[in-house]
Amino acid sequence: MTDADRLEIAAQAIDLRKTYGKGAAEVRALDGVSLDLYAGQFTAIMGPSGSGKSTLMHCLAALDKPTTGEVIVGGRKLGKLRDRRLTALRRDKIGFVFQAFNLVPTLTAQENILLPLSLARKKPDPGWFDQVIDTVDLRPRLKHKPSELSGGQQQRVACARALVSKPDIVFADEPTGNLDSTSAAQVLDFLRRSVDDLGQTIVMVSHDPVAASYCDRVVFLADGRIVDELAKPSREEILGHMSDLQSRAMGLAPIGEGV
Amino acid sequence: MLRLTLRNLAAHKVRLLMSTLAIVLGVAFLAGVLTFSHGLDRTFSGIINGSTPDGQVRPTNSATATEAAARPGGGSAAMLRPEAIERLRTLPEVARADGVVQGAGLYVLDTDDKLVSSSGAPTLAFNHTGSPNLLGEPMLELHEGRWADTQKEIVLDEGTAEKAGYRVGDSVTLIAPQGETKRRVTLTGIAAFNGGGTAGAQLLVFSTAGAQNLFTEGKDVYSAVSLTAADGVSQKELAAAANTVLPKGFEAVTGDKVVAESEDAIGDFLDVISVFLIVFAVIAVIVGAFIIVNTFSILIAQRSRQLALLRALGASRRQITTSVLFEALVMALVAATIGVLAGWGLAHGLAAAFRQAGLEIASDVLVLTPRTIWISYAVGVCVTLAAALLPSRRAAKVPPVAAMREDTQPPVRSAVLRTSVGLVLLAVGLVLAAMPRIGIPEISLPGGFDVPTSPALWVGVGAGVSILSVAWISAFLGRPVLAALRTVSGTVFGMTGKLAGQNAMRDPRRTGATASALMIGLALVSLIGVLAASMNASITDVVEEQFKPDLVVQSPTFTPFPTSIGDEMETVEGVATVSRSQIAQAVVGKLDLQNPKKNEAAFLFGVDEHLSKIYDLEVLEGSDDVKPGQVLVTDEVAKEHKWRLGDRIDLTVRSGRQLHPQISGIIAESQVTGEITVRIEDLVAAKVPREDASLSIVLARGADPAVVHDRLDKLVEDRPVVAVQDKDEFAESIKGQVNQLLYMIYGLLALAIVIAVIGIVNTLGLSVIERTREIGLLRAIGLSRGQLRRMITLESVTIAVLGAVLGLALGVLFGVLLRDALRDDLTSLWVPLDQLAVFLGIAVVVGVLAALLPAIRAGREDVLKAIATE
C-alpha cells in the first residue's frame, strides 16, 4: 500500500450505512463501508447482485444519501449540502455513465456531450473537447441524433460527456452491460485510455470480470460490506474471487448476518 | 379483462381525473345551459299563462295587448266606453268582464330621484281588476300590503320597490313623459305575477280610477277587457258571444290564442338566448373532445408494453379495443354525473348573472329535467367514446413483440395522408369563407334547396371547417411555429430553452392536439375581437359623419319626452338652435279595419325646419328640404312602394286621421332620419299628441361647449328620462352596449380556455411521467430543480403560444372575412392589435399556469428513482 500513500484521494466514503424499510423488513444495503478512491486510478466495484454496489456508487455520486456516514468528493462533505449545491457538484465535479438511457434523444451527439457545460452556461475548453472527441473516435458522428448511433457509439458519447467538464471523478454504472463484446471492448479501452492518457479518475460498478480486468484496482462487496480487494488483477483472478464470494454468500450468508 | 380495465382506471387516478375534468366541464356547461333555458322558458310561460284571462277584448289592429301597451304615445287610440263593457256583462256566457286600462311611458324614480333602470324588460302599468286567469286563479299575487284603492296609490313588484328603496307606506315618485312630469303616490303593496316573479318587468299597478287618471286623462274609458267564462262555457263560445256585441274596431279572442301569440313573440327572444348559450356549450364540448383524444392517445402510448404483453399472453385485438372503450365509458359516466350536477349549479350562476342584468328567473324552475339529464349523459358518453375510439384501435395494433422491446417509443406514424386530406379540407373551408368575395353562385340544389345567400353564413361555415381542419393537421402547420419558438427560447434561455423547444416538437401531433384546444378558444375570441373593434370603428365613423349638431338630447331608453324640455333649453344662454324631432306610429296607405293584417305599420319621423340645415343628408333625388305638406323618403322605402319624386302618398296615424304629403326628396338611409320624414306641423294637424323624441342643439357662435353642456345638464338634472350628450358621449353610449355584449362573449369563451388549460396540464403531466428516466438523467448530470421547472414551463408556454398563434391567425383571418361579408353594417375594418397582443400575453400566462403542477411534480421526483425506473 505504499502506492496508495502517494496517491491523492478523489472521493472518500466513511462508515457508510444505508438501510431500507423498518423492523423485521429492514434491509441493510450498506453496512459500514469505508473506502478511499484515488485520483488517476480506474477502480472497479464488484459484487454479486444485492451486494450493495449500486447503492454505494449512488451515495458516492451524490445521487442518494446514506442513512449514516459521510461521503467526501473533491474535498467537500456531501452530507450538509442542499439540492442546489448537490446539483452543481454533480454538474461540475462528477461525470456519469449509466448502463442504458444515457443520452437525451432530442439532442445531437455533440449537444449531448456538451450538455453539462451548457446547463452551467459554460464554454467548453476547445483543446480538451478535441482531445476527448478524438479519444472516443466520434468526430464524424457529432451531428447525429442518438437514435442514429449504435449502442457502442451511444456509450462512447456518454463517456465523452462524462469527461468533457473535466470532473474530479467519473462514475460508470455497468457501462458495458448492454453491449456486445466488441463494443464493450471499445468502451473499456476508451475508459482505460482516459485514465492513462488524460489522467482521469474513474469508478466503475460491474459484475463482469472482463470489464474489471481493465482496472487498476478491484474492490469486492458482499452483503453491504467490503470483503476484499485486488490490485491490477487478471480476469482469472477476478473470476476466482467472484466464485469464492458467490459460494460464501450462498453458504455462509446466515452466519454472516448473525455477526 | 374487466378487472384489468378497472385496475387501470384505479392506477392512473390523477391522469384520469384531469381528462375527466375536461368532460365534466363540457357536460356541465351543456347541462347548465339546458337547465337555464328550460327555466327561462318556464318563467315566461308561467307568467303568460298566469296573466291571461279566458277571453280578451282588444282593438282589432293590435296583435296583442302587451304590444299595444308598449307603443310610444301610450295605449291605443281606440278606447272602449263603460257601456260596451256593460253589454258584455249581460251576456249569459260571460261570468265577469273587467275593463283594463293600460299605459306606457311611466317610470318610477328611486329615493334619490333617479330613474329605476329597467334593462330591456318592459314596464307594465295597468289597473288591478281582480279578474281570474284562464286557470281560474288570480292573475297577480299580493305579497305584502293591499291593492291600490284611490287615485293616489300604487302597488309595485318587489324588484322595482327594492331597487328604488321603497317600502309599503312610502311615497313613490312617478314620472310621466307627457303632461306633468312628476307625481307622488303612496305604495300600498307589493305584488308579483301568479307563480312568482316578473322576469325583470316592472309592475306598476293602480286602481282603475288611478290608471284612468294617468292614461286616459281621467275619462272613464278602457283599452281592453278581460273576460271570464261562465261555468261550462268554452273559450271559443265566450269569444264568439262577445264578438256579437262589440263595437267596430274591437275583437274578442280566446285566452289560448293570446297565450300562443305571446309565446310566439317572446319565443324568438328566448330562442336567441338559448341558441347563443348552446353554441358556447358545443364549443366547450368540442374542445373537451380534443383533450380526451389526446389523453387516451398518451395513456395508450405509455401502456403499449403492457398492452403488448396482454397480446402476447393471448388477448385478442377486440378485447384490447373493448377494454379501452370500457375504460372510456366508465370515465364518461362518472364525468357526466359530476357534470350534470355541476351544470345545475352553473344554471343558478347564470340565473344570478341574468338577475344582475335585470332578468329575474325564479330558482324553483331551475330544475334538472329528465330531458336535460338524458341529453347531457348522451353527449358526454358519445363524445368520450368517439374520442377514445381512435386511440383504442391504435392500442389494438400494438404488436405482441413490442413487449420484448427495450425501446417503447411509439413508431413514427406516417402523416402524409392525414396532412393531405387536412390541407384539402382547409382549402375547402377557405374557399367557402371567401365565397362572398368571389361571388355566391345562385344555383338550386336537387330537392328544392337553394344555395343560402347570406354571406355571413358562408363565412361562418367556412371558418368552422377551416378551424377544425387546422386543428386536425396542427402537427403539420405548427411545425414552423414550433421551430421558431425553439430558436427563440433557445436563444433566450440557453440549453433549458432549447430542450423545452425540442420536447414540444418531439411528438408534433400531441403538441398540436393540445394546442388546438386553446386555438379554438382563441380563434373565436380574436374573431369576436375583430368584429367588435370594427363595429366600434364603424360607430365612430357614422357618428363622425352624421353627428352634426353640438349636442343631442334624447332618452337612454328612446322614449319620448315632453316638449317643455326643448322649450326651456331654447332659453339657455349659448344655445342658438334647438331642432325637434318626433316619432309617430302610422300605417302606410288607408287603415283597413276588416283585415288588420294588411295594414303596413311604419314609423313617421317628424322634424322641424332646422333639421336639413343641421344635418347633411345624402340626397339622391329632389332636395332634403321638407316643408309642411311634403315628405322625405329613403330610397329603400321608395323602391318598396314604387314611389317617385313628386308623388303624393297616404299615411294614417293612430288617431285615424290621414296625411297626404308630396315627396320632395329621396334620401339615402341614415341614423338621423327615419324611413319616412314629415314636418311636425303635419303631425300636429293630424292630432298626434306633441312630444319630442330627440333634440339637436347648435350652440351660439363663441359659446363654450363645456359651459353650455353643464347648463343643460343642470336643466335636465331632475328629469332623468333624458340625457344631454356631445359627439363623444353619444358614440361611447352606443359602444358601451357593444362592449357589454363583447365582455359577455369573452366570459363564455373563457370557459373554453379553461378547458384548454386542463388539456395542457394533462399533456405535460403525462409527458413528465413518460420522460421520468430522461429527467432523471438530466438531473444526474447537472440540471437543477429550477432549470427543470423552467424547462417544463417553457415547453408549456411553447404549446400555449402555438395554440395562440394559430388561433389568432385564424381568428383575424375570419374576422376580416366576416366583417367583409357584413360590410353594409360594419362599414370600417379595425384589427385590434393591442387586444391581440393581450390575448398572446394571456396565452403565455396560461402556459405558465398550466406548467405549475407538472413542474412541481417533476421537480419532486427522486433523481435515483428516475434513473432506476425500468
TrEMBL record, chain A:
SUPFAM superfamilies: P-loop containing nucleoside triphosphate hydrolases. GO terms for cellular component: membrane protein complex; plasma membrane. Keywords: ATP-binding, Nucleotide-binding, Transport. The keyword ATP-binding applies. Pfam families: ABC_tran (PF00005). Residues 11-248 form the ABC transporter domain. It comes from the Bacteria. GO terms for molecular function: ATP binding; ATP hydrolysis activity; transmembrane transporter activity. This is ABC transporter ATP-binding protein. It comes from Nocardioides turkmenicus.
TrEMBL record, chain B:
It is found in: Cell membrane. Residues 17-243, 511-714 form the MacB-like periplasmic core domain. One of its GO terms (cellular component) is plasma membrane. Keywords: Cell membrane, Membrane, Transmembrane, Transmembrane helix. It holds the Pfam family FtsX. It comes from the Bacteria. It is a multi-pass membrane protein. Residues 278-400, 748-860 form the ABC3 transporter permease C-terminal domain. GO terms for molecular function: transmembrane transporter activity. The chain crosses the membrane at residues 275-301, 322-346, 373-390, 415-435, 455-477, 515-535, 743-769, 790-816, 836-856. Its main location: membrane. The keyword Membrane applies. Belongs to the ABC-4 integral membrane protein family. This is ABC transporter permease. The lineage of its organism: Bacteria, Bacillati, Actinomycetota, Actinomycetes, Propionibacteriales.
